[in-house]
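Long-time lurker. I teach an intro course on protein structure, and each term I like to show students one example going from raw sequence to a predicted 3D structure in C-alpha cell notation. This year I'd like something fresh instead of my usual example. Would anyone be willing to generate the C-alpha cells for the chain below so I can use it in lecture? Attribution to the forum is fine with me.
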Amino acid sequence: MSRGVLAVAVVAGTLALGAVAAWLVVFRDTAEPASVDEAVTTFREETQAGARTPSRVPEGVYVYRTHGFEKTDALTGVTHRYPARSTITVTGDPCGFRLRWDVLEGRSTTWTVCVGPGRWTLASQDERHTFFGRTERTTYTCSDTPFRPAGDEPEAPFGVACSTGSADERGPGRVVARETLRMGGRRVETVHVRRRTSLTGSIRGRSTQDAWLARESGVPVRLDLTTDTTNDSAVGDVHYEEDVSLRLESLAPRR
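-- Reply from a regular --
Happy to contribute to a lecture. Here you go:
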C-alpha cells in the first residue's frame, strides 16, 4: 500500500471513528433510578410552597417494591430495567388528588383523579418517557372514565374514553372483586379494578391496568401495568413495550 493510499485510509478511519464517537455522544442513553429521598424532598418543597388543596387520599410519598421494564426499538433499540423500588407521590388537586409514579429520571406517570358524589373519575393521565436523552410527554384527557366506581361493587362494568388529540384510548373496565391482600403482617381490604384498552390513531396497540386500591383510603396497594404500542415518529413507526408490577411497602407515607 502506497503512502498516499495509507494516508487516505488513516484519515477515513479517523473520520469514521469520529462519526461513531459523535453518534454515541448525541444518542447516548442513560436510565438513572428515581430515588425515594428525591421524591420526599420534592414533596416537601411542593407542599411548603404555599396554599394547597387538601387531598382525599392521605398525602405523601408511598414506596413500592418494583419489578419490570420498558423498551423501544427506536434507533438501535434499548431496554430500561426498573429499579427494585419506586414511589407514588400523592398530592391534592382542585379536582381531587394526583398520583405521580416516579421510577426513572425521565420516566413518570401522573394520574389526576376527580372526587365526586359516589365515585372517583380519571381526569387525565400524563406520561413521560426518556430514551437517548430525549423526553417525550404524552397527556391523555379522559371523559366519564371511572378510576374507582361507586360502591366498589364486584363485576360493575364501566367504559374508558381517553384521548391525546391524535390518539384515542377506548375499552372496557370492571370491578373484578373485593380482595384482601397481605402487606407484611397486615391484612388490607382492597377493591380490584381492571382496565383493558385499545389505542388507535398516532398511537396504536393495547394496554392493561390492574389496580388494587385500599378501600379505606384509596391508596394503590398493588398495580400491574402492561403496554404494547406502535407510535408515529419522524423516523417512522416506533414500537414500545412496558411491563411493571408495584407492591406497596407501607400504608404510612413518607413526608
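Some talking points for your students: The chain is about 15% helix and 55% strand. Helices lie at 3-26, 36-47.
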